[in-house]
Amino acid sequence: MTPDSAPPRLSVRGLAAGYPGRRVIEDLDLDIAPGRITMIIGANACGKSTLLNVLARVNAPLAGGVELDGTDVASLSRRRFAQTVGLLPQHPTAPDGLTVAELVSRGRHPHRGVFQRWSAADTARVDDAMAKTGVAPLADRAVGDLSGGQRQRVWIAMALAQEPRILLLDEPTTFLDLSHQIEVLDLLRSLNRSDGTTIVVVLHELNLAARYADELVVMQAGRIVAHGAPADVLTSEVVARAFDLDALVIPDPLTSTPLVIPVPGGAHAAADEA
After folding, report:
1. Which of 163, 189, 218 is the C-terminal boundary of a domain?
2. End of a domain among 108, 141, 163?
3. Are residues 174 and 261 in the same domain?
4. Structure pTM?
5. What contacts 119, CB < 8 A, 6 or more positions away?
6. What is the rounded average pLDDT of the residues 138-145?
7. Residue 30 confidence (pLDDT)
8. Sign of the torsion formed by the C-alpha atoms of 240, 243, 248 and 253
């Protein structure tokens, strides 16, 4: 994607989603801000990952639908959709013995025809993705032999190699210590700012979500309770509603983004008041 080209628009209308016998999401509407970073936050089992999986076409809606530039994604071929939208799931797995370079190379599949040979451009894109995520020195290592943090960066490299215009990530900082969490989020911000890639991230850590998001989507019990700029939507009232937590929300002294400070005993206090 060139900086001057318009980023694609991803949206859901009247969405219901879940599993046989259980709807997790009901009648949800959402427009993902094109060319920006959107973080989806909320308590466990509120529907964050369910929403992301429907956006990625991993799960089909029970009602309503997902649109990409106004077209129902169900009408798009798998390859065409994958050329635009990439997904890093929460618990990805790789075949035994697969090397880092082999796994990252799989990100190129949507851009190659059945009989198309591997090109120098493919190699360059894979090398660039591994360099950006710091896994180039691990290229010949088996993915299964890596630490959890290293594996996570390799999966992100594979997603980057896909060259998606929209990148969906479910808990991409899982298994990473704080310094590596910052590295990953800095990388996503750099990708967004330099290439205009739309980034959508499910994240548990509220303060990191507030620091890196252009927009926050706050979910509670399958519905959106707040959506907008972090400074506008991440308030004590929203935290209490979405997380059942009494907290003080103040400006971060370094970034001026919202900083959530739980009140001691706040979870119990909120539960008693509910």
Report:
1. 163
2. 163
3. yes
4. 0.88
5. none
6. 95
7. 97
8. negative
Could you tell me the two tokens for 171?
């808990």
C-alpha distances out from residue 44 to 41, 147, 203, Å: 9, 25, 11
pLDDT in tens, 56-107: 999 999 999 999 999 999 999 998 899 899 999 988 888 899 999 999 999 9
